[in-house]
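Students often ask what a holo structure prediction actually looks like on paper. The answer is less mysterious than it sounds. You provide the chain, you provide the ligand, and the output is a string of discrete structure tokens encoding the 3D arrangement of the protein together with N-oxalylglycine.
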Amino acid sequence: MLHPGYPGICAAIEQRGWAVEAAFLPPASIAALRIEARRRDAAGEFHVAGVGRGAARVERSEIRGDRILWLDEHVHCAAEAPLWRALAALRAALNEALFLGLDSFEGHYALYPPGAFYRRHRDRFRDDDARVISCVLYLNEDWSVEDGGALRMHLPEGAHDIMPTGGTLACFITERLEHEVLPSARERLAVSGWFRRRT
Ligand code: OGA
Ligand code: MN
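The corresponding structure tokens follow.
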């Protein structure tokens, strides 16, 4: 039998619904993604993130203060190739281990300027349950506790914080977990996205 990759992630998702992997991509790949994100932000390609979608989408800085740029799997640059390869491998591993029927990934760069946050929420839209697994890959150099900006997961046993250190991947079962981004004292960069099932 073929052993699925990412056994730690698959086991943790199965047992408790969330997982953290410290070095999902090597430092050089993370640096390339960080440079790419900054370059495209400087070129004005990011836009203010909304809450809700379609006609119901609104911009509410008291709920979330990041700006985002959607990734395109079919038009990606060299810096994004290792990310798409790793995500494809993780999707296959999750499907093999947990029979989740994950079929695609949608995601975006997210840049939180100093002071920005994202209040407690779930990642599902009211009219769309295609998102199954949420993933956040952090792109930040030398993060420390004083920088704030932790991902706070609201677990049944209490709050659990994850620092947005470059290379760390946090993932969780989308429908299960409420979470928030605590105010960040520094610019905070991540790729945030979702494995989807076919609907
Ligand atoms: C999101 C989100 C968490 C993080 O983009 O929906 O909750 O740590 N991100 O950036
Ligand atoms: Mn979220």
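The chain has a mean pLDDT of 94.
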